[in-house]
Amino acid sequence: MTSTDKRRVLILGLDGSTWDLLSKFVEDGTMPNLGSLLEKGTSCDLVTMVPPVTATSWTSFFTGLNPGKHGVFEFLLRRKGISEHAVSGRNPFGEIPVNSTLRDGLPIWELAGRAGKESVVISVPITYPPEKIDGCMISGFLTPFGKRDFTYPPRLLDELEAEFGPYKLYHRQVYSKKGVGLVLDELYDVLDFNIKVTRYLMKKTDWSLFFSHFWGTDRAQHELWHLIDETHPRYDAKEGKRFGPRLRGFYSALDDGLGRILADAGDANVIIVSDHGFGPIHTFLSFNMWLLERGYLVLKNDLGTLLKRMIYSLGLTPVFFYRLSMALGLAKHRLSGGFHSRQRMQMLLNRFFLSLSNVDWTRTRAYSRGNYGQIYVNLKGREPMGSVQPGKEYDDVRAAVKQDLLATPNPETGRKMFERVYFREELYDGPYVDEAPDVVFLPEDMKYKALGTLDFTSNNFAFPVYGNSGDHRMEGILLGVGDAFGQGRRTEPLSILDIAPTVLHLLGLPVPKQMDGKVAEKFLRDGYVAENPVQYSETELLGRTGGRDLTAEDDADIKRRLEGIGYIG
Description:
Elements: E1 9-14, H1 19-27, H2 32-40, E2 42-47, H3 54-63, H4 67-70, E3 76-78, E4 95-97, H5 108-114, E5 119-124, E6 135-139, E7 151-152, H6 155-164, H7 180-204, E8 209-214, H8 216-224, H9 237-264, E9 269-273, E10 277-280, E11 283-285, H10 287-293, H11 303-313, H12 318-327, H13 333-336, H14 339-352, E12 366-368, E13 375-377, H15 392-407, E14 418-423, H16 424-427, E15 439-443, E16 448-450, E17 462-464, E18 470-473, E19 475-481, E20 489-490, E21 494-495, H17 499-506, E22 511-512, H18 528-531, E23 536-537, H19 552-564
Parallel strand pairs: 1-8, 1-9, 2-20, 2-21, 5-6, 5-8, 11-16, 22-23
Antiparallel strand pairs: 2-19, 3-4, 6-7, 9-19, 10-18, 11-17, 12-13, 14-15
């Protein structure tokens, strides 16, 4: 099908951006272009998926589907049919990093291509390996190190590198007292490169849909939130005075880039969006310790496990040694170490510290895996060594876990720590619900954050934050500028599921009925939908998974970097 309709949509994804921060930068003059756009357009909070995981949220954003339909609940997917002997290793559940061939659902650029509209997709998560689309695609940060097959068409990489030099695909620097300047240097450097590539392809291609993702906002806030938050327990006035202005300068550079990009956008409708919000974290939570303390998880009684427990009782835990590595200036190796060195380090950690390989699965009813402490029942027929029978016993374990979560006090205030506790079917629907965590929850105060970088990070359930000082929140940003949007309007929050159908409508395309989101009519200017009635289609969106796995080394490389930035355990 060939389209003569030249309606265009430009999407700028500012990963992890939050109005809590950006509004302050507008008010103090750091981001004047954003301030002007707020006056010209319509804005609101954008409510993301529970829990607010980057891989899950962006996939829901560009498919309009809940995770029960697209199948991405975390950065890792679980292989089915793992044998029982696998539980003795580091990867007892056969987890592999999600990639573009393993997620389900048709993305908006594929639907646009079917209608003859050209798309440009830059650095969006979960797009490696790149798809053959009508237009061009550059994969995001989950591309394995050293790979050069992350663009479509393949020749695009050589063209861009001839124009701008080696492609800057990753952020590798992490916070340490001596390394703040390096983190900031990289943030500026990658941002400048991304802006240049975005503007180059905007001018070079005949696009209808353009989607450029900027990861630096997320990395800046994970690593450096405490530089500009005087209420953070890790705030250091001297450090803040020295580096805080440079961090604000990063947002000023971003604002300047937004101004230049929008000047190139012409008559396109522009959507500026984030996959989730952000805020400070003060305390980490270790949910396998929580389950251990309550008897849901049971450790082996062998000599090796008993020795590890004794080591933990002395306070010699992974968190202790990580703090020591930070003090010695070695924290940078969590992102920059090579594959084999990371593998050796992980084997060393498993040798001396508790891991799921020390769990007695015959007596364990539940365990935790994931960014937000998600809890899985050790279900027979699903888990490699399941101990809980499907049916009533499964339901009883879930109910008990939920009740105990609701009864868990905040260690500082004594009030309830969790009031948002869900069974999986309360959040998700679709063919992949059976792969979701059994119990999902969020702290009422998200300054408390589950830490899943190791199975047993500390000997306590709650312990002071280290490494990252900021983390995700449920409310991201949404701003629309252009003919389709009203001026200076602030509306009620929208769901991240509503953006895909809204983008299709702005392109003049029908919305598949199978999408979970709906066209955000109240976000559009008065009269827009009356002038452009919403059309629907019966397009089948599901059934595209079952694609290729990456090599074992590529999987391990991606997992290493996800561990390094605190996204997986």
